[in-house]
Design goal:
The chain has 307 residues and is mainly alpha-helical. It has helices at 2-28, 31-53, 73-114, 126-151, 158-192, 195-217, 236-254, 256-277, 289-306.
Length: 307
């Protein structure tokens, strides 16, 4: 029961993190600077967590002889986090969650089938294929069918529809990056003998990547004093670190498959609540019955794929 509670809570926190970091971007003026702040806070928290859980930060050199891609998790994490900050104001909370989930499912199937990043090989069975189709139907129902019903009541410009299509594709790609990051960090944690240490390295690499990116782009801190500055605007990195740590805690208790399902339930619920009530500065968007049914179809597909 404890694992279920923790899984639902960290799942609920994912769309909260996206909302918070999007608000932070509006204050500092740059998605890359907002991501840097988030990663830095998350790295500090994970460093403290490593000291509490493992008692030391030694043994990191054991990963030195591994393939070069083992250090890529942090870079992919930067792409995923920054991508969500860019997607959120354009797609809203629900679609910013759903499109990456679809990408995660696709990439997860590819990783399992081909054993990428030294993952255990799990062939693409009929059950898993049916699950993937259900996820696709859920995405179509949530996005395409929702747009169709909306156009019956109001006119939409074609250019706007095309623009949303591009952002949805980008959402799928960021989800694929996230799945690859999970596999890479999982292998890194195995090599180091500590999932928390693996997460810490991933975050530190993300900080270094964002530092270089901000220097390259000559990003300037454009602090917007006209916007309200609530205390929760700085907790995005802490939430990201809690998500990583929470997964590291519940997976040994309930297994990866059930952990993913529990977290996904919390994640989808959180995104619906944020859209419905406009929490954390998000724009209020009504949640339709079609969306709810489509989300249930997606969840059924995820259960088939993972279990």
């Amino acid at each position: 029961m404890l694992a279920i509670i923790i899984g639902c809570i960290i799942g609920l926190l994912v769309p909260v993190q996206t909302s918070v970091n999007t608000r932070l971007r509006g204050v500092v003026g740059s998605p890359f600077l907002a991501s840097l702040i988030s990663f830095t806070i998350g790295s500090l928290f994970l460093f403290i967590l490593v000291l509490l859980v493992d008692g030391n930060v030694t043994g990191l050199a054991t990963a030195a002889d591994e393939p070069f891609w083992i250090w890529g998790g942090g870079v992919l994490g930067v792409i995923y986090l920054t991508g969500n900050i860019l997607l959120f104001p354009r797609l809203g909370g629900v679609q910013t969650v759903i499109m990456p989930i679809f990408g995660q499912v696709i990439m997860g199937l590819l990783i399992d089938h081909f054993g990428l990043f030294k993952a255990n090989v799990t062939p693409l069975s009929l059950t898993r294929m049916i699950g993937a189709v259900l996820v696709l139907l859920g995405v179509v129902g949530t996005v395409a069918l929702g747009d169709y019903l909306a156009r019956r009541h109001q006119n939409h410009l074609e250019a706007q529809a095309d623009s949303l299509f591009v952002w949805r594709i980008l959402g799928i790609l960021t989800g694929m990056m996230s799945a690859a990051q999970t596999a890479i960090n999982g292998h890194l944690g195995t090599v180091l003998g500590s999932a928390v240490k693996g997460a810490l390295i991933s975050f530190v690499i993300g900080v270094i990547t964002l530092l270089l990116l901000n220097l390259l782009l000559r990003t300037k801190w454009q602090f917007d004093r006209t916007q309200p500055l609530p205390a929760w605007i700085w907790i995005g990195g802490l939430i990201g670190a809690l998500f990583v740590a929470g997964n590291a805690f519940i997976v040994p208790l309930v297994g990866t498959g059930l952990a993913v399902v529990i977290v996904t339930i919390g994640l989808l619920t959180g995104s619906l609540l944020i859209d419905r009530f406009g929490w954390f500065g998000a724009k209020k968007q009504p949640v339709t019955g079609v969306q709810i049914v489509s989300l249930l179809v997606m969840l059924g597909g995820i259960v088939l794929i993972r279990l």
